């Protein structure tokens, strides 16, 4: 089997060309073809000699793979489904919004964190995506050239696959790669201790922490990861980091009706986050089957937002997009997984 070039950092491309006896400068040329021109085959890398292209092709391929399924929402959101070589499915969501066009990417197939409200968590964990598979989500969609932002808010916990995520971020933000500003990229996490420390030290991208309750016992009930790395400790780590240099820190907070949506919670959030340079994104819950949680109504969400803003924390209500296309992350891949199982049963 050939090795994918897509997903290789410049250092890795340097090693690859050296091993093949190609000139050292061809590593940058290959990076330019891959990440600048986004070619789909080695044959298109026309400033490499024919001999070197043939040599490269003996061992490598670009390694891009088109989505197997696209589901379009009435509001312009498109959910893409990619198939992994193991036969699993991962989701990416393209979200156009005026001048902005954001792609929400996945970092794992399923997730180990088992948050109560999350469909991906319900799938369990089937593996981490490679750098190739992470970047391929950005490389292989028709809207790739109009993207303004990428958020790691799809399936999986990015800090549980940090090596691959950091390498993807390097390629997206390096001059040899996509040359994007790190301010165009946000990584969302439940907060894993070692991952958080490494991410803060090794990347300049924005950070979003999934919070969902300021009370440790309730947060643990919603998000078991709280038991390993409590929100109070996460906040302490963040307090020692300087977020004033354009790197944005935000907290995500799903408002569950009658669970965490009263002003008691807003007041506690203000206490927890006092003095931190941050904002809160209030998220509408996308209902998932078999879970006894409901979304809060708009009036409650507005009152919650206004309380936070009045008490010094900038808060926004995130617009809910693609409600008509299995909106909750993990729903489409779960449905596809199920359909594939049924197809296989029929074949037997
Ligand atoms: C799917 S997660 C992926 C990133 C990372 N694992 C995390 O939890 O932050 C991205 C965001 O979606 C939220 N989320 C998960 N299930 C949801 C649902 N059913 N409705 C609304 N938001 C949900 C998570 O809490 C998190 O803030
Ligand atoms: S919300 Fe994030 S961490 Fe929790 S199960 Fe879903 S993907 Fe995993």
CATH architecture group name of the largest domain:
Alpha-Beta Barrel
Largest sheet: 10 strands, mixed
The count of helical stretches stands at 12
State the distance separating the first and last CA atoms.
29 Å
N-to-C order of helices and strands: EHHHEEEEEEHEHEHEHEHHEHEHEH
Ligand roster: S-adenosylmethionine, iron/sulfur cluster
> What's the CATH H-level superfamily name of the largest domain?
Aldolase class I
Within the largest sheet, what's the order of strands? 3-4-5-6-9-10-11-12-13-14
SS-based class: alpha/beta
Radius of gyration equals 21 Å
Domain Radical SAM core: 97-324
GO molecular function: 4 iron, 4 sulfur cluster binding; metal ion binding; rRNA (adenine(2503)-C2-)-methyltransferase activity; rRNA binding; tRNA (adenine(37)-C2)-methyltransferase activity; tRNA binding
Cofactor: [4Fe-4S] cluster
Family: Belongs to the radical SAM superfamily. RlmN family.
Short description:
[4Fe-4S] cluster binds at residues 111, 115, 118. With 348 residues, the protein is of the alpha/beta class. Helices cover 36% and strands 19% of the residues.
Description:
36% of the residues lie in helices and 19% in strands. It is of the alpha/beta class. Strand 12, helix 10 and strand 13 (279-284) form a beta-alpha-beta unit. Helix 1 packs across helix 2 and helix 5 packs across helix 6. The model has no long low-confidence stretch (mean pLDDT 94). Bound molecules: S-adenosylmethionine and iron/sulfur cluster. InterPro entries: Aldolase_TIM, Methyltransferase_A, RlmN_N, RNA_MTrfase_RlmN, rRNA_lsu_MTrfase_RlmN/Cfr, rSAM, rSAM_sf.
């Amino acid at each position: 089997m050939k090795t994918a070039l897509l997903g290789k950092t410049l250092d890795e491309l340097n090693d690859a060309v050296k091993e093949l006896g190609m000139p050292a400068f061809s590593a940058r040329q290959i990076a330019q073809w891959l990440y600048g021109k986004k070619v789909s085959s080695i044959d298109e890398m026309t400033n490499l000699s024919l001999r070197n292209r043939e040599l490269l092709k003996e061992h490598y391929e670009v390694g891009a793979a088109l989505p197997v399924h696209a589901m379009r929402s009435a509001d312009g959101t498109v959910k893409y489904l990619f198939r992994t070589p193991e036969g699993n499915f991962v989701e990416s969501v393209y979200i156009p919004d005026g001048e902005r066009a954001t792609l929400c990417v996945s970092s794992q197939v399923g997730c180990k964190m088992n948050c109560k409200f999350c469909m991906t968590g319900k799938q369990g964990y089937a593996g981490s995506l490679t750098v190739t598979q992470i970047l391929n989500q950005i490389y292989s969609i028709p809207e790739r050239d109009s993207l303004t932002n990428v958020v790691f808010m799809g399936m999986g916990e990015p800090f549980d696959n940090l090596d691959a995520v950091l390498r993807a971020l390097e390629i997206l933000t390096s001059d040899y790669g996509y040359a994007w500003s790190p301010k165009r990229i946000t990584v969302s996490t439940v907060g894993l201790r070692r991952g958080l420390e490494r991410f803060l030290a090794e990347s300049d991208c924005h950070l979003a922490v999934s919070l969902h309750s300021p009370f440790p016992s309730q947060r643990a009930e919603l998000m078991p990861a709280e038991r390993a790395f409590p929100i109070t400790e996460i906040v302490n780590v963040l307090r020692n980091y300087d977020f004033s240099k354009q790197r944005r820190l935000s907290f995500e907070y799903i408002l569950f009706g009658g669970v965490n949506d009263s002003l008691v919670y807003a007041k506690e959030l203000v206490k927890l986050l006092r003095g931190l340079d941050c904002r809160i994104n209030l998220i509408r819950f996308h209902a998932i089957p078999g879970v006894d949680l409901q979304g809060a109504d708009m009036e409650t969400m507005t009152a919650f937002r206004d309380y936070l803003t009045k008490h010094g924390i900038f808060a926004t209500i995130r617009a809910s997009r693609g409600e008509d296309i299995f909106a909750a992350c993990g729903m489409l891949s779960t449905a596809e997984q199920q359909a594939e199982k049924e197809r296989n049963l029929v074949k037997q």
